[in-house]
Amino acid sequence: MTRNPPPIDLSEPPAIEVRGAHKHYGALHAVDGIDLRIARGEIFGLIGHNGAGKSTLFKMILGLTPATSGEIRVGGATVQGRDFRAARRHLGYLPENVVLYDNLNGLETLRFFARLKGAPLTQCPALLERVGLAHAGNRAVREYSKGMRQRLGFAQALLGEPQVLLLDEPTNGLDPQAIRDFYATLRELQAGGVTIVITSHILAELQERVDRLAILASGKLQALGSVQALREQAHMPLTIHLTLAAADRPAALGLLSAVPGVTGTETAEGLHVDCPRGSKMAVLGALAPLGTALQDLQIQEPSLEDVYFDLRKG
Amino acid sequence: MEFQQIFTIAGKEFRDRMRNRWVLAVALVFTVFSLAIAYFGGAQQGTVGFRSIEFTIASLVSLVIYLIPLIALLLGFDAIVGERERGSLDLLLSLPITRLELLLGKYLGLAAALTLSTLAGFGLVAVLLVRQFSWAALFHYGGFMLSSVLLGLAFLSLAVLLSVLTHERTRASGLAITAWFFFVLVFDLLLLGALVATGGSVGGEAMAYLLLLNPADVFRILNVFSLDDVRTLYGLTSIVPPALAKPWLMGAVMAGWIVVPLGLASWRFKP
User: Fold this and answer.
1) Cβ contact (<8 Å) for B88 and A84?
2) Neighbours of B102 (CB within 10 A)
3) Whole-number mean pLDDT of chain A?
4) How does pLDDT run across B78-107, given as a tens digit for each residue?
5) ipTM of the assembly?
6) Are B95 and A88 inside 8 Å of each other by CB?
7) B88/A contact by beta carbon, under 8 A
8) A186, pLDDT greater than 70
């Protein structure tokens, strides 16, 4: 399942660079000292509870909200100031829970945003096609389902072939097939060098699909890295499922007791073994004497959700 | 400032109001009410039918002063807060457009819709009455139409200011209605009360200048000066000294009522 992430080169000028960013609303520190470098062509996940600072960080990257202190650069340039128009033409943004204009149809919606973005209007039909709305381009948005609205919002974000995409909960309301299609599109864009920052509350969805991710809590960066790196950082045990006949289980438990830190409990099929990350090979070695009595073995990594809650606890 | 961005926003707002038949509906309301007033306006004096242009305009002024501020406030209160509430404001502002361009685009689009419906509504009446009126009368009527448009634009500007200042549509609509009550119903009563309470010792000239603080009164003054025989129909504004009653001066005050709230809105429209 795990796809090979492209090599992340952080030595190049990053697509997005956040340095010592703070955003204070009175006593509330919505973003509280974040440093982040997101490489060109990276799919980067941003996760955290509601109010963790994700949306504020997005708005700061977009230049919608000025930082209280710190610096943010996109493609090496600041998003505010004299050259903000040029910078924003290369940005695509889908806000969380956006409601587009009910009285326009899909194509008109895209044309309206294309004009504002300075993107060629000829892109609009092709983008509708790309998000699977070619058949609904002439229907009023008021008649769209939630998933269709979300897809239209995504098409809007793709106007002007942006180099950086910021997508806040983009799969909200999409059905499983649409979610697959959505991520397939993201991978095509990534292959073209587009940098994508994405938030989602559905961690299982991000788990296999982002190159790296950051966990935000109370405006601070709590953890940063690939899913695998976060697993290691969390020190969460692996789970190994052994399929064994009932008669063989005591012997297996005996063998496992020789490996420090490993615990085994009986299940309907065999044994459930909790194993420290570093002891995986030792456990496999210890089980060798079982030979063919060991009918099957499955190693299960902790999910991103497990890691997320473990890191938040810490 | 990029005018292209302003026109894109304005064009959408205007088309929205055309498409949902807002312009048509408001124009029809103006037509029906003004025809009725032009015809039945003299009923209190025991006559029915079309009368002099002075009486017709005086009757229309008293209608417009209630109707146009209300329509303009209802049209504009949603402009910014509506986008904010549906989450599209952040999306718009993430595009290569400044807040001022967005604000001006919104205002101009809505202003175009309001202006068109006002001119169409009252213009239709002028066409219907053209046989009754002389060219001079039509000139007065044109002045009335123009001042009606300015009145609408001033209240639209106030509405957009309220829309920027609030973060919820319900609050913005409440404030819009409050503004209507204040300017259209309460303001003159307060001035009149002050005039009576002080026995007229503080008042007169100074009171006349206070009328400039209300665009609805400025609108009355704009229409009162040319019509000596119907002055009594204009209430408080009949106390306006001749020095104030100059069309260009009142036009400038009205322009101030359009520009100042918009300027404040732009100043307060910050992240």
Assistant:
1) no
2) 23
3) 90
4) 999 999 999 999 999 999 999 999 999 999
5) 0.90
6) yes
7) yes
8) yes
Which residues sit opposite A93 in a β-bridge?
Answer: A166
Choose among A98, A72, A100, A67: nearest CA to A87: A72
* pLDDT tens string A188-230: 999 999 999 999 888 888 988 999 999 999 999 999 999 888 8
Task: Answer yes or no: is pLDDT of A3 > 50.
Answer: no
pLDDT of B228 higher than 60:
no
Q: How far apart are CA B99 and CA A185, in angstroms?
A: 32
The tens digit of pLDDT for each residue in A10-36 reads: 556 789 999 999 999 999 999 999 999
CB contact under 8 A, B8 and A96: no
DSSP-based three-state secondary structure for B50: coil
Q: Which of B152, B163, B104 is nearest to B254 (CA)?
A: B152
Contact A156 B96 (CB under 8 A): no
Q: Which residues of A touch B20 (CB under 8 A)?
A: 103
Please report where in the chains the tokens 């010592």 appear, as a residue: A20
Q: Which residues of A touch B90 (CB under 8 A)?
A: 59, 62, 64, 93, 95, 98
Query: 């790309």: which residue's tokens?
Result: A130
Are B96 and A100 an interchain contact pair (Cβ–Cβ within 8 Å)? no
Long-range pairs for A261-266 at CB < 8 Å and ≥24 separation? none
Residue B9 to chain A, least CA–CA distance (Å): 8
